Every structure is written in C-alpha cells, then in structure tokens.
Amino acid sequence: MTVTRRVTFSAGHRLHNPKFDEQKNREIFGACANASGHGHNYRLEVQVTGPVNAETGMVVNLKEIKQIIEEEVISKVDHKNLNTDVDFMRNVIPTTENLAVKIFEILDSRIGKGLLSRVVLWESENNRAEVCR
Amino acid sequence: MTVTRRVTFSAGHRLHNPKFDEQKNREIFGACANASGHGHNYRLEVQVTGPVNAETGMVVNLKEIKQIIEEEVISKVDHKNLNTDVDFMRNVIPTTENLAVKIFEILDSRIGKGLLSRVVLWESENNRAEVCR
Amino acid sequence: MTVTRRVTFSAGHRLHNPKFDEQKNREIFGACANASGHGHNYRLEVQVTGPVNAETGMVVNLKEIKQIIEEEVISKVDHKNLNTDVDFMRNVIPTTENLAVKIFEILDSRIGKGLLSRVVLWESENNRAEVCR
Amino acid sequence: MTVTRRVTFSAGHRLHNPKFDEQKNREIFGACANASGHGHNYRLEVQVTGPVNAETGMVVNLKEIKQIIEEEVISKVDHKNLNTDVDFMRNVIPTTENLAVKIFEILDSRIGKGLLSRVVLWESENNRAEVCR
Amino acid sequence: MTVTRRVTFSAGHRLHNPKFDEQKNREIFGACANASGHGHNYRLEVQVTGPVNAETGMVVNLKEIKQIIEEEVISKVDHKNLNTDVDFMRNVIPTTENLAVKIFEILDSRIGKGLLSRVVLWESENNRAEVCR
Amino acid sequence: MTVTRRVTFSAGHRLHNPKFDEQKNREIFGACANASGHGHNYRLEVQVTGPVNAETGMVVNLKEIKQIIEEEVISKVDHKNLNTDVDFMRNVIPTTENLAVKIFEILDSRIGKGLLSRVVLWESENNRAEVCR
Predict the structure, then answer these.
(1) What are F8-34's pLDDT values in tens digits?
(2) C–A contact (≥3 CB pairs within 8 Å)?
(3) Which of E5, E53, E58, E60 should one mutate to test binding to chain C, selecting the residue with the greatest count of C CBs within 10 A?
(4) Do A5 and B126 touch (CB under 8 A)?
(5) Which helix (DSSP H) or strand (DSSP E) does residue C4 occupy?
(6) Cβ–Cβ contacts within 10 Å for residue E26, how many?
(7) Are F3 and A94 inside 8 Å of each other by CB?
(8) Average pLDDT of the segment spanning B43-63
(9) What is the pLDDT confidence band of residue B24, given thresholds at 50, 70 and 90?
(10) C25, C27, C31, C32 alpha-carbon torsion, rounded to 10°
(11) F: neighbours with 3+ CB pairs under 8 Å?
C-alpha cells in the first residue's frame, strides 16, 4: 500500500556548471543558463509505502508527512533561489534531478524506517524527475 | 502492457475508531473525525495488465472494465455515505487506504485471471492511496 | 483589472426540502437526496476588481483576501456538514447555487468597497455555480 | 464570438518597491520580496473577440495570434528574470497585475482593430490577474 | 446566477473550404487541412443564467440540462466525423467557432426562455471558442 | 532516477479489424468502429531511466529527447489519420495499446542504450495505455 502527498512551491534557479565555459553551459542548459535566472512552480509528490495500521486504517498519518515536508523542504525552498538560498543545494547544479535526489535523502532520513518509497518532482506540466528506493 | 480506466464518484465519510475515545480520534483523524461527517469527490484509476490480443489490439475491452466498475463500485458508493450506506465498508474505517483495498479485492475477484494490477484512489488533488498486486 | 484567488475545501451535504415529500425530493434532487448524505471537494474562486495601486502593483493584497476567505469561509465549511454544522447555511438547501450566494454575501460585507466582483464555486469538475455583482 | 489561445512560460522575479524600506517591502510583498528572487510557471490566455469570417469559419487565425504572442511576449520573458531582463518591465514592479497590463498593451497595439478583448495571466494554479478592454 | 455543466466528446474533422484551392486551404488551415482528417477530445461547457428558484435552490435542474446536451449534442457528435456524419454541420467548415455557434443555436432553441447564456468549446487544452448571448 | 517528458498531439482513427464482419466490429469496438472515423487529443509521456551525470546534473538532456519525440513521433502522427497516413501503423489496429507499443519500439531504437523505460499514452482523460521495459 502506497500513499502520496502532493505539495507545490515556487523557486528560482539557473542551470550553470562553473567548470564549463559560457558556450558549453549554453549548449547544454540552453535558456536555463541565462545569467539572471528564472523560476518555476514546482509540484512535489512524496510517496510512503508500508502496511495499513489496523487501528487507524492508515499507512502513516499524512498530516505528519505534510508537517515534515513543510519543515524540511517547503520552508527552505519556497520563494527562494535554489542557487544561492538553499543550504542543501550548495555546490549542486539545481536541475530537477538533483533537487529530487536531495529531497529524497532529506525526507528519507527524517521519516525513517525505509517508509519513503518515491519522490516525484515536476518542474513544469511537461517535465518531471522521480527517485525511488 | 497496462491499460487504465479513470472514473469519479462523490461520497461522504467520517474517520472514527469506536475503540478510541473522542480525544484520541481527534488527535489521529483531526477534522476528519467531525461527528456529522464531510465528503469528497473521489477519483479512481483501475489498471489492468496483460498481453495485447492480436485480433482486437486490446489488453481487455475497457468498456467491460467500465461496466464492472460501474456495477461493483460506482453504483454502491456514489452519492452515498461510506460509514453507513456501503455493505463492503461495514466495520471498516473509511480511510482512502481501506477503501482502495476493498475496491481492489472486489474488482480482482470480478475481473479474474490476475489481470487487475493496481487501484489508485484520490481523495483530493493532494492525497491518494494505491494498492498493487 | 480583476484578480482571482482559488482555494479548495471538502464538505458533506444532502439536498432535501422539508416541504416536499420523499418522492418529490427524489425526483428533483436525485441521488443527492440520499438520507445519510455524501460530499464533495469544492473549489472556490474569489474575484476582486479594481484599479492597480501604483505603489504596490496590486489591486488588493491577495494575502489579505486569502486570510479573509480562510476566516470567513474555509474555517466554517471545511470538513463540515453543510446541512448541520454551518451557521450561515441554516434553513438553506445546500445547493452549489445557494452556497455560492451565501459566500458572496459574507465576503462582500467583509471585503467592502464593492471590490468583490465574482464568486465561482465548483462542486465537481463538471458542475459549478457563479455569482457576480 | 471569442477565441482564446493558451500558452505557458517560466520566469523569475522579485517583488520590491525601491521607495519602500526593507520592512515595508516585507510587510507588503512577504516572501515575494526575498532578495535573490524566485520564479513561476506562468500560464497566459489571450482572448480575441469579433465576428466569424464566413469563408474561414474563424474569428482570426489562431496560428497568427500564436505567432504574435511568441514574438512579442514569449521570446522576451521565457526563462528570463522579469526585474532585469525584460525591456517592457523596466521600472515596473513585476506583479501579475502589472505584467498582465503590459502584455495587454503590447498585444493590443500589435493585433490592432480592437480585436484583443482580454488577457488572463496565472502566476500559479491559485492566483491570477486579468485585464479586459 | 450562472450555472455551468461540463461534458466531453471525441470527434474527427478536417478544415477545408471547397471554394479555395489546395494551396489556399493549406495556407489558412495548415495541418488541419490534411485530406484524411484528424480529431480531438472536445470539452464543452454550457452556461445557464437566471434567478435561483427558492424551493429547489437551483437555477435550473442540471440533470435536465445534462439530458438535453446528451440528446441534442453528444449523441450526434461523439465518435463521429464532423464533416460527414453530423446533420447540423452540413456545409459548415467544422472550426471550433462554427461548431460552438451551432451548439449554442441548438441548445438555445431547446432550453428556451433565454436561459442559455454561454457555450464554451475547447478543441484542445490550448484553444477554445465561446459564444454568449 | 527517471525523467519524463510530456507532449500532446491530435490524430484521427477508426477501430476496425478487416477480418471481422460489421457486426463483430461494432460489438468489440462500439462507436469507435464508425466508418468515417473520429479522433482524439493524445497525451504522450516518455520516461527515461539511468544514473544522473555528475557534470550536467541530468539523466539525459530532455531537449534531445524532445527533439527525438518531435522527429520520430509528432511529425508523423500530429493532425494525421492513424489508419491511413502513418507508416508505422500500417496494418495495425490503431488502439491506444498498439500505438503505445509502436511508439515505444521507435523511440527505444532511436534513444538506444536501454534508456527508455516507459511510454504512457492517454487517449482521453479517462483512458490510457502504458508500455514498460
């Protein structure tokens, strides 16, 4: 049994690898390499997998998952710049893939017990990245 | 190959375990424990997995799946109260998880041949539960 | 210039006019007349119309509108039963139309200055009601 | 008869009025005032109103409208920072309202004949601004 | 007070004016002029405007509107070819605009009393046409 | 790590097996067997699975995947008739299942390295088919 909580946040970013010169950055990241950055409304789905507790009829209390997501992710990335404002993204190129990996690691260590099964992160209605255990 | 049919229904419910006192029910289920109940527009996805029949180009005729979902699920839960009106939910706390499990069991025994691979049930655009074989 | 804030809530209801007998209620309200009720995820859009303030670039601060909607509507209807739990719906048949009218009146008197221009209320993805000034 | 074309773009921005001190900016714009900015996936709807041409069955060729939106708006704002990269937003606080007004003016002068009837601009699935003639 | 009913249907069409030569058809209608046709999932919204009936709490019974839409529109266009199979589209170029106008006329004469206020017809998530009284 | 690209296209089709007589075609395919065809707005999701490249922060450049989908799929099916206009669908009943299988095969041979992990194809908001490795 898997339960999923969806949340949204808005953040700015710029895709750029300091090891590459301007032309290579442009080649790889296209308009995402623009120097002054841009941003997205991200949609995040957090999935938890386990047996249903017979007394509560729940795998896990989604209110607690919502609270953990709020504390560990939303409060740190919402209305922030992913290149400069977010501790856990320091020295990481803020692609959807890398952001999804970091969110998985953070939530996994906080939720514990191997319950976290998947994180799906939409950058737009057309692009998304997902990490699973 | 997996094919999926999506349907929607509206139902009322209240989350409440008679073994718990009022305070514990409130603690666990929050506003979902309100005595007079509330409700949701549920979205249900039913997935069937198997080989494609060469003559029809289909795994299974989705019209038949639609008909089975209508008879076994929609006619029993749509515009009903899950705590009081639905036979297969008697003595079950009507969480999204429990409702998804029951729907999986009912559809699986009716569709047969192990074709049913997954049931996904949205309680809102932010919360969902899924059961897979 | 019109700005719109969208929110969602979940509530239970039953459509039933005590002046009608059972048969007439069933005729008019169909499955919505079921005695133990059902419910919906409602989507509410609140529109405010006025000139843009040159200093803020806003018609009105949507954070304030959000706060007003939270206090005056969401806190009173979310996870509640519209027939029994909501003061402003006493003795009103809880159709989408009537609920939209009441929400318009409440928000209009609280927001003031004739700024509220429209309230749109979805009962499902297929049905909605709207009231405008 | 009104026809509508929907497009999307992603941009960064920061809400900040240089006439206000830091505290007042924070008070009015909240997290949107964060110094390093954030961003959104914007959704833009452009409406054109007029009679249907009997020979084409169209009010206006939406391919041409799409082309105009691409040239005049998308190429200038997509993957850009609205505070620093966009000529028509110089010295304008990049609220959804102000951006919608500017887009209306630009498209109106390019489409001509008073055909443009409305511009609707979503900053997120919960907030939008619209300008009509 | 305005109430809206949303329905969907799927149909095939080809945009082509027999008065134009092949090149002009291609110029105006682009890929929509392809000889063997293509198709869409259409979304139709039907709006009815009037006072709320005090006894029912409704402007009009949406079940009746749904029934009328089913009989007058869906049964005639769903899974049909708009160029060849639909009586009310004979000798009409099946643009979204023309189809919306015809649907408005048909529903208006059937619903009567000037209650129908607007028909909105989506050809895709990016394009739509609307007719209002 | 899995990344997904979503695209849409519109196409016409008719479900019909020449080996079956008219009655059997009607029995199996229902209204989809109508002789002059109909059509849909399809939504296609293409998933690629692999490790994240440390230098780019990407599994694969989605711009390249988008380009491949455009060349191999969209340019061949968009605004076309699946029964008559599409080489890779010759002698194939154009069900969602068969179209998804063909798209998987084409993209898999072009993307290479076993990176393509899944193709999901929606025929409408209620029906979809998916193929995975």
Answers:
(1) 999 999 999 999 999 999 999 999 999
(2) no
(3) E58
(4) yes
(5) strand C2-13
(6) 15
(7) no
(8) 97
(9) very high
(10) -40
(11) A, B, E
The two three-digit tokens of residue A71, written as one number:
């504390």
Predicted local distance difference test score (pLDDT) of residue C11: 98
Regions of chain D short of the pLDDT cut 70: none
d(CA E60, CA E3): 8
How far is Cα of residue A133 from the mean position of the Cα atoms in its chain?
Answer: 15
Number of domains in chain F: 1
ipTM value: 0.94
Q: Give the domain range for residue D18.
A: 2-132
- pLDDT tens-digit series, residues D21-43: 999 999 999 999 999 999 999 99
What are A48's strand-pairing partners? A3, A116
Compute the distance between CA of residue C81 and CA of residue C99 in angstroms, rounded to an integer: 12
Contact assignment for C34 to B84 by CB distance below 8 Å: no
Contact B41 C13 (CB under 8 A): no
Using CA atoms, how far apart are residues D41 and A126, in angstroms rounded to an integer?
Answer: 11
Q: Which residues of D touch E (CB under 8 A)?
A: 1-7, 52, 55-59, 61-63
Q: Which of F30, F40, F80 sits opposite E10 (nearest CB)?
A: F40
What value does the mean pLDDT take over residues A20-42? 96
Give the model's pLDDT for residue A32: 96
Name residue D43's beta-bridge partners. D8, D122
Amino acid identity of residue C91, one-letter, is: N
Q: What is the CATH number of the domain that holds B63?
A: 3.30.479.10
Task: Band the pLDDT of E62: cuts 50, 70, 90.
Answer: very high
Neighbours of E108 (CB within 10 A): 17
Asked if B80 and B12 touch (Cβ cutoff 8 Å), the reply is: yes
A interface residues, D as partner, C-beta within 8 Å? 8, 10-13, 30-32, 34, 36-41, 78-81, 83-85, 124-125
F39 to chain E: which residues are within 8 Å by CB?
10-13, 37-40
Tokens of A36: 């002054």
